[in-house]
Design a protein that fits this description.
The complex is a heterodimer of chains A (298) and B (274).
Chain A (H helix, E strand, L loop, with lengths): L4 H36 L2 E3 L5 E4 L3 H8 L1 H32 L7 H8 L6 H11 L6 H8 L14 H26 L3 H9 L4 H12 L1 H16 L3 H6 L11 H9 L7 H26 L7
Antiparallel strand pairs in A: 1-2
Chain B lengths: L1 H33 L3 H4 L14 H9 L2 H32 L5 H13 L6 H10 L6 H5 L6 H12 L3 H9 L4 H12 L1 H17 L2 H6 L8 H11 L4 H21 L1 H8 L6
Helix pairs in contact in B: 1-14, 3-14, 4-8, 4-11, 5-8, 8-11, 11-15, 13-14
The chains are: A mainly alpha (298), B mainly alpha (274).
């Protein structure tokens, strides 16, 4: 032991002191609110949103028996399915095409990363213009192909899809950058060996690159799913959860219950928040359990 | 073999060009649409090239929302969050990497837990805290909850742990205490990791939407992102104006993505590559 006793005691105190600033912030704005969310979920409130009585599990009962609950879960699942895998697959194609930048096309890497510069608000308002039923480019393409114009964001059949397209585009830059980093870590010698064996470009990509970057793909699936479960901005900006709830995900449901249009039902909102928390934890656990077994670690 | 390669190369270029046209079209539309007059952008069929360059949209957007003020708000808030998270992360990562802290594993687990709790699930009590303390429409409300973050601590701890032990021992033998070692040796040598954390935190702070929407309702106290949202609500018929606002909001983030990519990737993959 290099340190003398008083020296060790000083070091331990210093260590705690250095953790303190972060711990205070986490305590005030993360851990305590987490406890408060559980507390609030068992309280009712007056018209002004002040918690005034304990209601036990009544909020949870009303959430679970709410006819909207099933649809909200369905919309949330649909949104995750329509965004996570399509975006990762598209980004994978881009990353594989870009892994050895061709002469003069190096700039494409930066260009394809540009969607990452768009905030959720920026991307959403641009896509709102693109999908504008009267003057948007999307309907121009649709009508020039001979189809009837589509009310992208106001018809139940296309609203969620349109939000998903916006999200896929937004997350493309991030996913591609992460995949390129993963691909960059693959040992060049493996490519050489495969090429000597006569493997073509596609074969090499599928049989060498993809299996070797499964940890990266797994990381993206987990992170993107959690991000999708937490999406708010694109829904708020593009549809406000409509038409008639067809794009109301769990997070948007919380907003709708607790905040939208002067709502103050914090008790029910908190019960919904705990459902969200449970879903995020469950989905992450399942992904670790199922997917990680298929991941190839060197 | 050779000719097969050449064909493959052309297929690759063709695929890339095609994908570039699709993926980059919204970027093109953002910039070009912002300098189009209403006759161009709202015409049927929509024109893809401006027939006449105009900067009216940029003038117009300044009247539609208090854009300069919101820009300033966004910069102040994002910078304050970035600086504070950097300082907190450096301190706690130093403790985790170099010091004997009691209950170290428990504390580290707590820090990791902060990365797993979805902010949306605890947003109600946080909102009530701001409302109860009359902090709505203040910078404090926008900044306080994000003064520290688990991500920076996590990334810097990883980086600090790879710091050569010999260098550290040499510094200790020279009589450098923790402060001098941290400030004069460790931090200068950890610049890439610090840049990753700074860029990453700045981007997420700059792009925040749900929280600022909840705690601000007076336009002059709002951030640029909320400004874009009001612009979108009020100016549906005037896409050029909205696109001018988006173009201006994109400047800092586009610069970071273009020039900070090296650092960005390091931050993005902190958890991906083992």
């Amino acid at each position: 032991m290099r340190l003398s006793r008083p020296g060790l005691a000083r070091e331990r105190t210093l260590g705690l002191a250095l953790l303190l600033p972060s711990l205070v912030v986490f305590g005030m704005f993360l851990f305590w609110p987490l406890v408060r969310t559980f507390q609030l979920s068992t309280t009712g409130q007056d018209l002004f949103g002040r918690a005034n009585r304990s209601v036990g599990l009544a909020n949870f009962r009303s959430v679970l028996h709410d006819p909207e609950f099933g649809r909200v879960l369905g919309v949330t699942a649909g949104y995750v399915l329509l965004t996570v895998l399509p975006s990762i697959l598209l980004a994978l194609v881009l990353a594989l095409l870009l892994q050895h930048p061709l002469a003069g096309l190096r700039i494409l890497r930066s260009a394809f990363a540009m969607p990452f510069a768009y905030s959720v608000a920026a991307a959403s308002v641009v896509f709102a213009a693109l999908f504008n039923p009267a003057i948007g480019i999307a309907n121009y393409l649709v009508t020039s192909l001979g189809f009837a114009p589509v009310n992208w964001l106001t018809s139940p059949g296309t609203a969620l899809l349109t939000i998903a397209i916006t999200t896929v585009w937004m997350s493309l830059g991030y996913n591609m950058l992460v995949l390129l980093a993963g691909i960059g870590g693959v040992d060049e010698q493996l490519y050489e060996a495969a090429r000597l064996d006569g493997a073509g470009t596609v074969r090499i990509a599928w049989s060498i690159t993809v299996p070797l970057i499964t940890p990266t793909l797994f990381f993206l699936i987990v992170v993107d799913t959690i991000t999708a479960l937490q999406s708010f901005g694109q829904i708020h900006l593009l549809t406000r959860g409509g038409p008639t709830g067809h794009t109301t995900t769990l997070v948007y449901w919380i907003y709708h219950t607790a905040f939208a249009d002067g709502a103050t039902d914090y008790g029910t909102g908190s019960a919904q928040a705990i459902v969200l928390l449970a879903v995020v934890v469950a989905v992450t656990a399942i992904q670790f359990g199922v997917l990680e077994r298929k991941v190839f670690y060197r | 073999m050779r000719s097969g390669n050449r064909v493959g190369r052309w297929v690759r270029v063709a695929a890339l060009v095609l994908l570039a046209l699709v993926v980059l079209f919204p970027v093109y539309y953002t910039v070009v649409g912002s300098v189009m007059g209403p006759g161009d952008i709202a015409s049927a069929p929509p024109s893809l090239f401006p027939h006449r360059l105009t900067f009216d949209n940029y003038r117009g957007v300044l009247h539609a929302i208090p854009l300069q003020r919101q820009y300033l708000n966004s910069i102040l808030v994002a910078l304050a969050i970035t600086v504070s998270q950097l300082v907190c992360a450096v301190l706690s990562a130093y403790a985790f990497a170099f010091l004997a802290v009691p209950l170290k594993r428990t504390f580290f687990a707590l820090f990791l837990l902060t990365l797993m709790v979805p902010w949306e699930a605890i947003i109600i009590p946080n909102f009530l805290f701001m409302a109860d303390h009359q902090l709505r429409n203040t910078y404090l409300a926008l900044i306080l909850p994000f003064l520290a973050g688990g991500f920076g601590t996590f990334l810097l701890r990883q980086s600090f742990r790879t710091f050569p032990v010999e260098l550290r021992d040499a510094a200790t033998l020279d009589g450098a205490g923790h402060g001098r070692f941290l400030w004069q040796i460790l931090l200068p040598l950890s610049r890439p990791a610090l840049a990753s954390v700074a860029i990453f935190v700045f981007l997420s702070a700059w792009n925040q939407f749900f929280w600022p929407l909840l705690v601000t309702d007076s336009p002059k106290r709002q951030t640029l992102q909320i400004g874009l949202s009001s612009l979108n609500d009020a100016e549906q018929a005037n896409p050029g104006l909205i696109l001018a606002g988006v173009s201006m909001a994109l400047i800092p983030t586009a610069l970071l993505v273009a020039f900070g990519q090296r650092f960005l990737v390091r931050g993005l993959t902190a958890g991906a590559v083992r």
